[in-house]
């Protein structure tokens, strides 16, 4: 159960994500008085690909899978965005997530547009060999709909560097011998040693941590002894918690797909990671914490709440339970429009997803440049560059928010959309 809803009913969990992103877009479009023609263009997606493809299972049977890739907008550069393997993946989820990517890449000042996709699947039900065949066959079916200068996928929920390595290898294998190595940057988030960037694994969580740190410092405080809770203990949730703990903050609650745990004296991040690995990716029954109900998780006494799982988790049903004074959106679209209104009216600050978790796509951009230019970048330089880029975005967003008296999400969206509007204004509409 999550938020009183059955987790195995995906329709309940992701309801309204597309409505939310469109409402967020329209609020910012009103704020900047967006040209009505450009509003029309940005309200819909450019391309939507739905592919049904067969894969042979370990027992010899053939199963049919459905994969999606939605390309929202490429006015600023090639489409960019993750691939998610989850039962909630469908065309509306992919549309919403693709739109968020367009605003995210624009806000970060990257030469990219926005896309998202994935496969409607519960990967826990398949063997590694089956997941490899599913990934390779999906990549083959996508064909030239992805490409290093056209649309560049990356990891998202339930996909990782291994998934990206399979995609890169499959895509490159379809090219002639002399062209193969030029196509390594068809995906980012690859393993280090196979074209991947040092530190790409932690880039999103590090960025989440940095935006929290910037916010705390702006308020004249520090992270020392601050209490935080995390929803989702995967790539983003773990790394954000890792860096927060290093800075003196204390993790007092965690929720994942299987349950919730709490310890007001603190849960040691690395201990939970080791337990999670040994326990098939679940935090349930961690010995140094108490179990609690999923609704109670939202009411844990803390300063900072990091939603780092799925969309639409903070809603009108639980927004009033939240004790934190800061929400840092590691996930994409974790707060729905109604939930956000309640939080803002209570004076809770929200660092919006398109800024908070943008460390991932900024890291992806570094990886893409590294591959494209035949370079090898080093971890220290990468983290320094990431901090510089995020710091500059953070200042832009908080300045805009204060000058225009709007919340941080409207500020971030406004900056992002203005950049795309400018590109359209300069180049015009063909023919
Ligand atoms: P992941 O697959 O590594 O981890 C997901 C975690 O969420 C797991 O701990 C899982 O148990 C938990 N979870 C799943 N369903 C849940 C539910 N119903 N309730 C509570 N917890 C649940 O995924 P990730 O890469 O860490 O991505 C997490 C979020 O961050 C997603 O919204 C994703 O779009 C966003 N994001 C990821 C990246 C990235 O680089 N990986 C970048 C930007 C944004």
In short:
The chain is an alpha/beta fold and 431 residues long.
Notes on the protein architecture:
The chain is an alpha/beta fold and 431 residues long. The protein is built from 15 helices and 12 strands. Strands 9-8-7-6-10-11-12 form a 7-stranded mixed β-sheet, sandwiched between helices. Helix 2 (17-32) runs parallel beside helix 4. The termini are far apart. 51% of the residues are buried. The model is unreliable at 1-15 (pLDDT under 50). Nicotinamide-adenine-dinucleotide binds at residues 2, 7, 13, 155-158, 204, 231-237, 255-257, 308-310, 330-332, 357, 360.
Broad structural category: alpha/beta
* Backbone shape: globular
Mean model confidence by pLDDT? 95
| Total beta-strand segments | 12
Any low-confidence stretches, pLDDT <50, length ≥5? 1-15
Please give the share of residues in helix: 40-55%
Element order: H for helix, E for strand: HHHEEEHEHEHHEHEEHEHEEHEHHHH
Strand content: 15-25%
Query: Widest sheet: strand order?
Result: 9-8-7-6-10-11-12
The hetero molecules present are: nicotinamide-adenine-dinucleotide
Largest sheet: 7 strands, mixed
How far is the N terminus from the C terminus? 52 Å
Q: Helical segment tally? A: 15
Radius of gyration computed on alpha carbons: 21 Å
